[in-house]
Amino acid sequence: MTWEDADPRLVDSAADADDRAVETALRPKDLAEFVGQERVREQLDLVLRAARQRGGAADHVLLSGAPGLGKTTLAMIVAAEMAAPIRITSGPAIQHAGDLAAILSSLQEGEVLFLDELHRMSRPAEEMLYMAMEDLRVDVVVGKGPGATAIPLELPPFTLVGATTRAGLLPPPLRDRFGFTGHMEFYAPAELERVLHRSAHLLDVEVDAAGAAEIAGRSRGTPRIANRLLRRVRDYAQVKADGVITREIAARGLEVYEVDDRGLDRLDRAVLGALLKLFSGGPVGLSTLAVAVGEERETVEEVAEPFLVREGLLARTPRGRVATPAAWAHLGLTPPQPGGGMQQTAF
């Protein structure tokens, strides 16, 4: 049983069904209402204004960045700003070129096509997308073998908004066909406080400035996580207090859900705890560390490590994973004396 099967993480930046339902209600409807990502928002505003003045479809847009930072929201805002319908699909859903041809051939003029997880699209579909983006044409192959015939289909002008969490996996020919590329950064606490106040208003939740600051500080720089924590603290305030979220109520509520003052949850602390207590801070191999916390290697590497590295609590070295002085301080432990630690082999 994996960590996700046993206990879904409250600080997971991926969206579940509940998140998607709430995000629909909380999602900003235009760029003016969108909080954060100042540079991307300013650049995208220029692209969309220019397209409206020309009376044509906007250039294709590529948005990259970690989950939960607003890529889907911006895609919907592109459609709203252009007063165009939007069609939503994802890379994993397009496994054959025919799947993509069916979508593209049914697009209306000016329509926005949002392709999430673009890097996971199949190679044949990807090659078809090149022609569609650049030449507004797709070749549909009819028949098989020597008698196969390619029938060209002309496409109306449309705007593709692609989103990816792993821009490095996109082939250069695909990246080059996007007229605008925006990278989504993690949010500062002050920006998350603005997100939380806006969400609290829409959810009819009373939260003071100190309460919002407390939640923002534990949200790992991600609006989706901030909104999720807000909902859980709302539940705590409703059941255990008078419904008003103050700093004390937010701290007590998040303590119940085991999210500490830096946003670490049980899995994060288990990884750090094993690294510090069992292996004297490392270096230790990833497989050994995963066994020590009872998780799959991929879970530790892809779920826990990125945030721990970003927070400066863990470092990846050629010899293995190593805890930083900040990790010892965060867990309230004393580092071993030089020469007294265990030497581990990385594998």
Automatic annotation (TrEMBL):
The protein's enzyme class: hydrolase
UniProt-annotated stretches for the region Head domain (RuvB-H): 261-347
Residues binding Mg(2+): 72
InterPro entries linked to this entry: AAA+_ATPase, AAA_lid_4, DNA_helicase_Holl-junc_RuvB, P-loop_NTPase, RuvB-like_N, RuvB_wg_C, WH-like_DNA-bd_sf, WH_DNA-bd_sf
Protein's UniProt keywords contain Heme: no
Residues that coordinate or bind DNA: 297, 316, 321
Pfam families in the record: AAA_lid_4 (PF17864), RuvB_N (PF05496), WHD_RuvB (PF05491)
Cell compartment(s), UniProt: Cytoplasm
Keywords, ordered alphabetically: ATP-binding, Cytoplasm, DNA damage, DNA recombination, DNA repair, DNA-binding, Helicase, Hydrolase, Nucleotide-binding
CDD domains per the UniProt record, alphabetical: AAA
Region Small ATPAse domain (RuvB-S): start-end pairs: 188-258
Protein family according to the UniProt entry: Belongs to the RuvB family.
Physiological role: The RuvA-RuvB-RuvC complex processes Holliday junction (HJ) DNA during genetic recombination and DNA repair, while the RuvA-RuvB complex plays an important role in the rescue of blocked DNA replication forks via replication fork reversal (RFR). RuvA specifically binds to HJ cruciform DNA, conferring on it an open structure. The RuvB hexamer acts as an ATP-dependent pump, pulling dsDNA into and through the RuvAB complex. RuvB forms 2 homohexamers on either side of HJ DNA bound by 1 or 2 RuvA tetramers; 4 subunits per hexamer contact DNA at a time.
Domain remark in the UniProt entry: Has 3 domains, the large (RuvB-L) and small ATPase (RuvB-S) domains and the C-terminal head (RuvB-H) domain. The head domain binds DNA, while the ATPase domains jointly bind ATP, ADP or are empty depending on the state of the subunit in the translocation cycle. During a single DNA translocation step the structure of each domain remains the same, but their relative positions change.
Assembly mode: Homohexamer. Forms an RuvA(8)-RuvB(12)-Holliday junction (HJ) complex. HJ DNA is sandwiched between 2 RuvA tetramers; dsDNA enters through RuvA and exits via RuvB. An RuvB hexamer assembles on each DNA strand where it exits the tetramer. Each RuvB hexamer is contacted by two RuvA subunits (via domain III) on 2 adjacent RuvB subunits; this complex drives branch migration. In the full resolvosome a probable DNA-RuvA(4)-RuvB(12)-RuvC(2) complex forms which resolves the HJ.
Protein name per its UniProtKB record: Holliday junction branch migration complex subunit RuvB
Gene encoding the protein: ruvB
